[in-house]
Write a structure and sequence with these properties.
The protein is α+β, with helices and mostly antiparallel strands and 100 residues long. The chain has helices at 16-19, 60-81; strands at 26-31, 36-44, 49-58. It has a three-stranded antiparallel β-sheet with strand order 1-2-3.
Length: 100
C-alpha cells in the first residue's frame, strides 16, 4: 500500500482531428426518460440544406450540469462583452432533418 496521496486529476487524451473542433450554427435537443440527445448541425438556408455535424448523448444529470455550466459561462461572457442579442433571424425557427 502506498503512502502517496491519490490525485483526483484525470488526463484527457484527444486526437488532433478532435482538437480542431467543429462549427455548428444550430442544435436540436430531444430527450426521453433515459437520455438527452443534442444534434449539432450546420444549416444552409439558401440551399435548403442541413448537415448533421455531431450527435452527443447525455444522461439527464449530466445534461443538467451542462445547462448550468452554459448558463454560468454566458453570464460571465455578458459581464465582459455585453448582452448577447438573439436577433430575429431564420436560425431561431424550429429545424428538422431527414435521415437517409
Amino acid at each position: 500500500m502506498s503512502n502517496q496521496p491519490q490525485s483526483n486529476e484525470i488526463q484527457i487524451k484527444a486526437q488532433d482531428s478532435e482538437l480542431k473542433g467543429s462549427y455548428s450554427n444550430a442544435v436540436q435537443v430531444t430527450h426521453n426518460k433515459e437520455e438527452f440527445i443534442l444534434d449539432f448541425m450546420n444549416i444552409f438556408p439558401w440551399q435548403k440544406l442541413g448537415l448533421l455535424i455531431s450527435r452527443i448523448i447525455l444522461s439527464p444529470s449530466h445534461a443538467k450540469r451542462l445547462a448550468g455550466a452554459l448558463q454560468e459561462n454566458v453570464k460571465k461572457y455578458e459581464e465582459q462583452h455585453g448582452v448577447i442579442e438573439l436577433g430575429n433571424d431564420q436560425f431561431n425557427k424550429p429545424v428538422g432533418f431527414k435521415t437517409e
